[in-house]
Amino acid sequence: MPALEPVERTALLTAALRAAETRRDDRLYEDPYAAGLVGDVGPELLAEIRAATFPHDRPRTLPSTPDYNAIRTRFFDDLLQAAAREPGATQIVLAPAGMDSRAYRLPWPGHIRYFEVDRPAVLDFKAERMRGVRPLADHRAVAADLTGPGWEDRLVAAGYDPSVPSTWLLEGLLYYIPEAEGRRMLERVAGITAPGSRIAADIVNGAALTLPHMRGLLEVFAGWGCPWVFGTDEPEALFDGYGFDVRAVQPGEPGADFGRWPDPVPPRAERNVRRVFFVDGRRR
């Protein structure tokens, strides 16, 4: 894949994490395509994350990226499958798509149109790696830069209907783009979604960007050219500002644990602790 952009690099990391999860006896999901999507650098990225997270000479102080990724993937798997079963549900949008294989590995109702939006290099790479594999939904790839102009028009041209409800997943995106761009992203998604549409995302809090004990993980991502730059302590208020009523749960809380989160879950009132939120809600 030429000229790796930040989120593209993390997409290969995610594929490597999903391939590793699939090999576990206690796996939370099975992704038979992840191993073919990791590319040449995916295993190296995963090894660097493991080395930072699980040092051989001292106890772990960083959040467990493998457990987090497993929980996140399963959480959004379940959410998208539930959304697809809702009466009137016809459209799912992954933005960005990265190396995600849900269109190929999960069962979908026949009436679902499944859109994947990402840069042309990403979609071309994935199409080559998935050559000969048939998607299990009416799959539409939309080649566009989500931080650039015009992706809404390309999405509509691919068959997306802004006048009917849809479900959007912004997975592994918001903390990698500056706050102004993140807010603009939510504004643009709101502008192309009908009332009743669902939205889901993950986002970190402000302290996760600055706490000294997070430095080991933050330095890895910064070294790859994709630092964490956007977080919020009030995700509900953030999404509310763009017309979405959402709830936010942390890994380890009921519904976002699956028996795998290894650390205590700090109460929302506690300050100066790292957090990550899974956000799920609807457009008013």
What does this structure look like?
The chain is built from 10 helices and 7 strands. It has 284 residues and is an alpha/beta fold. The protein is globular and about 55 Å long.
Count helical runs. 10
Question: Termini separation (Å)?
Answer: 39 Å
What is the residue-mean pLDDT, rounded to a whole number?
95
In N-to-C order, the SSE pattern is HHHHEHEHEHEHEHHEE
Biggest β-sheet: strands ordered side by side in the sheet: 3-2-1-4-5-7-6
C-alpha geometry: globular
Key structural traits:
36% helix, seven-stranded mixed β-sheet, globular, single chain, 284 residues, 7 strands, alpha/beta
Short overview:
The protein is of the alpha/beta class and 284 residues long. It has 10 helices and 7 strands.
What's the structural blueprint in terms of helices and strands?
Layout (H helix, E strand, L loop, with lengths): L5 H17 L11 H4 L4 H12 L11 H20 L6 E4 L7 H4 L7 E6 L1 H10 L8 E6 L7 H7 L9 E4 L8 H13 L6 E7 L10 H9 L11 H6 L3 E6 L26 E8 L1
Helix pairs in contact: 1-3, 1-4
